[in-house]
Specification:
928 residues; mainly beta; single chain; 23-stranded antiparallel sheet; nine-stranded antiparallel sheet
């Protein structure tokens, strides 16, 4: 074969020693080497030969037509053979020409014909090729075993090449590169598996590759575990365009019991621009149901980004003209928008709209297999805007809020809700302070205002409501004035004066119609202002107490016990704004059918957005006391030699006495306790004790709250009940720690002081369930997540005998909720005037088990002790097969369904290489 051919030959100097090879010993060769000696620059430190081919400067060679110099280096040696015209580069050889770069352990160049041949060198010990040729041109990069290239024609021939195309890898036994950059492959393989020996591939008999754009191929068939399968296609292509491009979205097919066979999630993708796209999808069922959806993503770097999703479904069940026939429509609109703080730090705009009709989740096929969306009872949407003026301390904000109750189909809409606030400032403070701060300079004030317009209605009546008659609107203003002084250096005095105002544009006047014996309501429009105020003054301090335990009893381990007491006393006053002289309340005369006359009090502003000043005169003295108890002990694990243990993190109580009240001046006693059992668990509970005792009306026998306190009967306050939720996660590590504690090890870690991060073993490699059903196109974008598993390489644990330690990571989370309250449906116990307590219990449980690497089982369930029923019960199994993944999710209660999926992990092949099987949604049907 001629030496100027693109087909590479075996290295001519492969058998030569690893040193500077001798060229032919004739005089011509010696003279040529002497002429080249000036051009060979050798780095004696790392033994690198460097040569730049300045073609025009060498008059002994013919012009090659190269457009730029060829730069080549080798770390071991460079040998020129004058007879053949080849230069041999050994050891990390590199050849650069324009934007093309070629590296290999051995490169052979022909300086006259512009040919370069590159190959790896076989290792004498492992018999593996090392230093394989790597070719780079711009963003393209290829690795092969042998490679030949012509710098002038830019053509090449490559053997056993491996390159990355899109999300996959292309391998080919023989490849030719044309001068226009296309590659022509023979016996090629395309796979998304990144293993050295792929688990599967699509074997291509021939293909044409446009790097970074697309690949067209002829007959191809699927190979799994080196076994060819009878699954073939006559031709096809892979798009690898890195930029956005429009195209068709292939639908999926299946069957649903109530709606029949379907084609869904098919449509078209529009790449509108680099900042915006649009995806239109549709679904069609054989029994008449259909649906369309549109989704658009938009972004502007450093300014904003967002997503819009709209879905419309028409669901037809049953047969026409039959009793079970039904047809209903449902709609879902979602919009997520966020602005980047870099665009304008003082202005933000965000939106989180999640609106859906009541029956949408029941009609959406994906929601039936997602307990989170299927059991969702409320939806909240909001659009907000804020703007701040830091120099003035001014902040403006506006929002629109919608809350949906999916159970009773009601809506709470606020449109709009505007707020303005002025940060605290000191109006009497001197601009240039000289000397000590004066007492009046500590007086501060601020302002907050709000305008709102809201309505509570149903979906069907929202757009039929009247803005004046049905909507509630108004303005609210508040100006707090306060200060902070110190008395006797240890007591803090805090006086406060709060001014409030409300403005309404509507009020209701009521009257009694004697003829119809009914109440009549008449709306009046205008501007109506309501004002109120209140004042208070408080005093608080902090007391510290230290106690050193008796050493004969506690030894030297306990150093001291500290008790912190924070008492607070405050007095507040507010006038009685319920008097009719203020104009906030009035009355009408009622004459019943028997002629009895009575006065019925009411407020024309009772339905106002901010209510009205309805509290009677207040003159309350409030008392509160907070306690904290800590113990300081010696610790060898702490750098200071000591550590603190919290005995009682908080034990507080508060009660007030209203001097202006004629009856029942005492308020209920509120108490709170918080205990830190461990560094990771804190127990807290709040309770209320009623001050006044129950009494029985001797005439009717009814039970009412009397005017005598429980203390007057020699009893503590009446316990009103409590609500508590306890949760704990148990896993294999905590279980081992528990057994260690039983053996007397690890108590320092429980009470703190140990370096948990240092002592803890490395975390196990746990797998996650990737719910790929959520990756489908017609899924709620808020519920969609693209969780990707990452394998972390950790050192394997071994037991004392040197065997691989058994490991099956698992965790189990328990959540127990209990509510305790008085059960007034039962008779009261007259001995202590107490109602029996009623308890509401619920227990939830969830967890996962990693059977082995790649195998994961998850489950969740719960039990309601009052209704004696299981709550939503689900289970799932996932298997990570490296380049494939398998998952099976089961819903056991309150309905039964399953979903099995087996698909390629790569998004490019996920739609083509997948198998799915779903059950139909059903109730009380045992399909298993």
């Amino acid at each position: 074969m001629p030496t100027d051919s693109l087909h590479p030959e075996a290295p001519a100097a492969a058998a030569l020693p690893d040193s500077v090879l001798r060229a032919r010993s004739d005089s011509a060769t010696a003279a040529l080497l002497d002429s080249l000696r000036g051009r060979l620059k050798r780095d004696t430190t790392i033994a690198v030969f460097h040569y730049t081919d300045t073609v025009a400067a060498d008059t002994t060679r013919r012009k090659t037509g190269l457009e730029a110099p060829v730069d080549y280096t080798a770390t071991d040696s460079l040998v020129y053979d004058a007879a053949t015209g080849f230069a041999h580069l050994y050891g990390d050889a590199k050849v650069n020409y324009q934007n093309m770069a070629l590296t290999a352990d051995y490169i052979r160049m022909n300086l006259d014909s512009n040919l370069v041949h590159a190959s790896g060198v076989e290792d004498s010990l492992t018999h593996e090729l090392k230093g394989k040729p790597i070719y780079k041109q711009g963003s393209e990069e290829y690795e092969s075993e042998r490679m030949s290239f012509n710098f002038k024609t830019k053509k090449g021939f490559i053997q056993n090449v491996k390159t990355t195309q899109g999300e996959g890898f292309m391998r080919s036994a023989d490849s030719k590169r044309s001068n226009d950059g296309y590659f022509y492959l023979q016996n090629a393989e395309y796979t998304t598996c990144d293993a050295d020996h792929p688990h599967f591939c699509l074997r291509l008999t021939r293909a044409k590759v446009s790097p970074g754009k697309e690949t067209f191929f002829g007959p191809a068939y699927l190979v799994v575990a080196d076994v060819p399968l009878p699954l073939a296609v006559p031709y096809g292509f892979f798009p690898f365009n890195r930029s956005y491009s429009s195209g068709l979205i292939m639908p999926t097919y299946g069957e649903e019991t109530s709606r029949g066979f379907y084609l869904r999630d098919g449509g078209y993708y529009f790449a509108l621009s680099d900042r915006m796209d649009l995806k239109l999808l549709g679904e069609l069922y054989t029994k008449g149901s259909w649906g369309v959806s549109a989704e658009s993503n938009y972004t502007h770097r450093y300014r904003y980004r967002g997503n819009v999703y709209v879905s419309y479904l028409t669901t037809v069940t049953g047969d026409k003209n039959m009793p079970d026939y039904s047809k209903e429509t449902s709609l879902k609109v979602q919009w997520n928008h966020s602005s980047d703080a870099k665009a304008n730090p003082n202005t933000t705009f965000s939106a989180r709209v999640n609106f859906a009709t009541q029956n949408y989740e029941r009609s959406n096929l994906n929601s039936m297999y997602n307990p989170l969306s299927y059991t969702q009872s409320t939806r909240a949407s909001s659009v907000s805007f804020t703007h701040a003026v830091p120099s003035l301390g001014l902040s403006l904000s506006g929002s629109t809020n919608i809350t949906q109750n999916m159970r009773n189909n009601t809506l709470d809409v606020t449109l709009p809700d505007l707020s303005i606030s002025v940060a605290r400032f000191y109006p009497l403070r001197r601009r240039k302070a000289v000397g000590k701060e004066r007492w009046y300079e500590k007086i501060s004030m601020s302002y907050s205002g709000q305008i709102t317009n809201s309505i509570s209605t149903t979906e069907s009546r929202l757009f039929k409501s009247s803005l004046v008659r049905d909507w509630r609107n108004g303005m609210n203003h508040r100006i707090p004035i306060d200060a902070n002084f110190q008395l006797f250096k240890y007591i803090n005095i805090s006086p406060t004066l709060s001014l409030s105002g409300r403005t309404y544009m509507k009020r209701q006047q009521k009257s009694w119609n004697t003829a119809t014996q009914s109440e009549e309501v008449r709306d009046e429009t205008g501007f109506y202002n309501l004002y109120d105020w209140n004042a208070s003054v408080g005093a608080n301090t902090t007391l510290y107490g230290f106690y050193k335990p008796w050493r004969k009893l506690f030894g030297d381990h306990v150093q001291a016990i500290r008790h912190v007491i924070k008492p607070t006393v405050s007095f507040s006053y507010a006038p009685d704004f319920t008097q009719e002289s203020y104009g906030y309340t009035t009355h009408y005369v009622k004459t019943d059918a028997s002629g009895n006359v009575s006065l019925v009090p009411y407020s024309p502003y009772a339905n106002g957005a901010f209510g009205y000043p309805n509290s009677p005169r207040q003159g309350s003295v409030a008392l509160s006391l907070s306690n904290n108890l800590e113990m300081k002990v010696k610790s060898e694990r702490d750098t200071s030699g000591y550590r603190k243990i919290s005995l009682i993190d908080e034990l507080s109580g508060s009660i007030s006495y209203n001097l202006a009240a004629k009856t029942r001046p005492w308020s209920d006693l509120s108490m709170r306790v918080r205990l830190k059992f461990t560094k990771s668990y804190t127990f807290s509970m709040a309770a209320t004790f009623a001050t006044y005792a129950y009494e029985i009306d001797p005439n009717t026998g009814n039970v009412y709250v009397g005017d005598r306190t429980e203390w007057s009967y020699g009893r503590f306050g009446r316990f009103q009940g409590m609500s508590q939720n306890l949760s704990y996660t148990l896993n294999n590590k905590k279980l081992m720690t528990f057994f260690g504690l039983l053996a007397g090890r690890g108590w320092d870690k429980i009470f703190g002081g140990g370096d948990d991060k240092k002592d803890a073993p490395p975390p196990p490699d746990e797998d996650r369930i990737d719910d790929k059903d959520m990756d489908e196109a017609n899924v709620d974008p808020i519920l969609r997540h693209n969780a990707k598993k990452t394998d972390k390489k950790v050192k394997a644990d071994v037991d004392p005998d040197g065997y691989l330690a058994f490991s099956m990571p698992w965790n189990l989370t328990f959540s127990y909720g209990v509510t305790m309250r008085e059960d007034r449906s039962k008779p009261i116990r007259r001995s202590n005037m107490r109602y029996p307590f009623a308890f509401t219990h619920s227990l939830n449980m969830s967890g996962n088990i990693t059977l082995a690497k790649g195998w994961n089982i998850t489950f969740s369930s719960g039990y309601d002790f009052n209704f004696h029923k299981l709550s939503m019960t689900t289970a799932g199994l996932s298997r990570d097969l490296h380049c494939f993944e398998m998952s099976c999710n089961i819903v056991l209660r309150p309905y039964s369904s399953f979903n099995f999926s087996f698909r390629a992990r790569s998004s490019q092949l996920a739609d083509a290489l997948r198998y799915e099987k779903r059950s139909a949604y059903s109730s009380n049907i045992d399909w298993y």
